[in-house]
Amino acid sequence: MNWMTARIIPPLATPLLSQDELDHDGMERLIAHVLAGGVSGIFVLGTTGEGPSLSYRLRCDVVRAACQIAAKRVPVLAGITDTSYTESLRLATVAAEAGASAVAVAPPFYLLYSQAELLHYVERLAAESPLPIYLYNIPQLTKVAYGIDVVRAAIQIPRVIGLKDSASDLAYLEAVLNVTRQRADFQVYVGPEEILLEGLLLGATGGVCGGANLNPELFVRLFECTRNGQLEEARRLQNLVNENSAALYTVGDQASSYLRGMKAALNCLGICSDLPALPLSRFSNDERALLSSRMTKVLASQQWLSESSPSNLLSRR
């Protein structure tokens, strides 16, 4: 498979045994779970994968393990975002050697960069990376966005092959899609699952949505219904996605509730540990009890999703 056939790509959570040790068994279970749900690619070391919070050694372990487990059944996209250009390029090399298909890079964070500097960064990375590049737009975390002029210039670079937009700004997404239509093979993916349907209707290629870690089949069905013009069913599925995200990503401190909720939910399903990378911490007993109660309702609401399918959440109980 290649990126031209990829539509729903989970940004995988990173199962951890400790702060610097990958849970390989958990990674195997997680990848088996999402592949059984019909996803067409996986993305490691993104925001949901806590990429920038992991040691460089552990990031390499994650990429190598994901490629080994996926075994070419679906393409693997590796996040290489870092404040250091050299480390980003080094991880791109590791990803290429491991068998990944492409890399994704958000603007370097901490310092503020002009759009001209950001374009120069992209041009140089595209020239030196052993793998093609997806731009990863997430300005709420990096403080800098890939502006429309940068995107317009980037589509002239053959090795920049797409963009993942996690800005939750439909006006920006529509502007990107209008610009990138000049290049038929340039792919644009929606990150926030709450606007997946709106993004697809605007013309996005697919979704890179965290909730597909938990119930990949729901997202695959939503995509397929949208593609097939079954918009009433697609809207029903989108409403279910929104209900689930509201239930599972709002426990505890709002700033970290998504990541902590995602890992706690995966743990409730028996897939992997709920340990996040520092400075995040596991849920308290009260928070976990609340999340578990909400998970019970989520599981019940999704019982209709092919109960015989191995990807069904109920099969994890």
What is the fold's blueprint, element by element?
Layout: E1 16-18, E2 21-22, H1 24-36, E3 42-44, H2 56-70, E4 76-79, H3 85-98, E5 102-105, H4 115-128, E6 133-137, H5 139-142, H6 148-154, E7 160-165, H7 170-180, E8 187-190, H8 196-202, E9 206-207, H9 216-227, H10 231-248, H11 257-268, H12 285-301
Parallel strand pairs: 3-4, 4-5, 5-6, 6-7, 7-8, 8-9
Antiparallel strand pairs: 1-2
Helix pairs in contact: 1-2, 2-3, 4-6, 9-10, 10-12, 11-12
Summary, kept brief:
Helix content is 45%, strand content 10%. It has helices at residues 24-36, 56-70, 85-98, 115-128, 139-142, 148-154, 170-180, 196-202, 216-227, 231-248, 257-268, 285-301; strands spanning 16-18, 21-22, 42-44, 76-79, 102-105, 133-137, 160-165, 187-190, 206-207.
